[in-house]
Amino acid sequence: AQSVTQLGSHVSVSEGALVLLRCNYSSSVPPYLFWYVQYPNQGLQLLLKYTTGATLVKGINGFEAEFKKSETSFHLTKPSAHMSDAAEYFCAVSDRGYSTLTFGKGTMLLVSP
Amino acid sequence: DADVTQTPRNRITKTGKRIMLECSQTKGHDRMYWYRQDPGLGLRLIYYSFDVKDINKGEISDGYSVSRQAQAKFSLSLESAIPNQTALYFCATRDTDSPTAEQFFGPGTRLTVL
């Protein structure tokens, strides 16, 4: 069975600092990986996804993630945090044969001035 | 107008009551999903539907039922609500069977069972 683990339920950074949100996956085959963001009182929206090909994936709002098969990781980064990045972030995995997603437990990103 | 809408947005009910949460979409997608979100647990899949005749149980379907009335409508019912069903419920849609396709989420329904 596939699963994802997000390290850290809360991450705090200062405005302008590097953002690093960690995600590790477990899958018997190379998976498809996603990062979704949930702003307060809103539904989830897609930030970026890895399917095949280039392992460094760029998404919206300056975020990017790198797929590392040897480390079974798909960490999300942003060079410089903005106050508007404060939200909850979810890593998700989709097995190649299915049309469902398995989500991690989420990481709340807090950005201080 | 929003592509995926959920009604109601907030609902408070009592233990034992029957309640229905509704989801409508204008995206023309065949695939629709119901999730619940609990603090610290992320999103968990309750039911999903690939078309009006295809309903599938997800990870946590006990205590819930669904109805796909049309391509655009997918309802979630709690036949006899209990307090541990207090959660934020999301509907989502997807346009293809490809596992790489994005899911589009509604704004959520916050349900409180007293």
List its salient traits.
heterodimer, A: about 110 residues, six-stranded mixed sheet, five-stranded antiparallel sheet, 11 strands, globular, B: mainly beta, four-stranded antiparallel sheet, about 55% strand
What is the makeup of the main sheet of chain A?
Answer: 6 strands, mixed
**Principal-axes shape call of chain B:** globular
- Multimeric status of the protein: heterodimer
Count of discrete alpha- or pi-helical segments spanning 4 or more residues of chain A:
0
Envelope shape of chain A: globular
What's the end-to-end separation of chain B, in Å?
33 Å
Please give the number of β-strands of chain B.
Answer: 11
Radius of gyration of chain B: 13 Å
The averaged pLDDT of chain B comes out at 94
Beta-strand residue percentage of chain A: over 45%
> For the residues shown, what is the average pLDDT of chain A?
92
Describe the structure.
The complex is a heterodimer of chains A (113) and B (114). With 113 residues, chain A is mainly beta. Chain A contains no helices and eleven strands. Chain A has strands at 3-7, 10-14, 19-26, 32-38, 44-50, 56-58, 64-68, 73-78, 87-94, 102-103, 107-112. In chain A, the strands form two sheets. In chain A, strands 2, 4, 5, 9, 10 and 11 form a six-stranded mixed β-sheet that branches. The radius of gyration of chain A is 13 Å and the shape is globular. The mean pLDDT of chain A is 92. By secondary structure, chain B is mainly β. Helices cover 0% and strands 56% of the residues of chain B. Chain B contains no helices and eleven strands. In chain B, strands 2, 4, 5, 6, 9, 10 and 11 form a seven-stranded mixed β-sheet that branches. Chain B has a four-stranded antiparallel β-sheet with strand order 1-3-8-7, with no helix packed on it. In chain B, a hairpin with a 3-residue loop joins strand 4 and strand 5. Chain B is globular and about 40 Å long. The model of chain B has no long low-confidence stretch (mean pLDDT 94). The A-B interface holds A 6, 9, 32, 34, 41-46, 49, 51, 90, 94-106 and B 4, 31, 33, 35, 40-45, 48, 50, 58, 90, 92, 94, 97-103, 105-108.
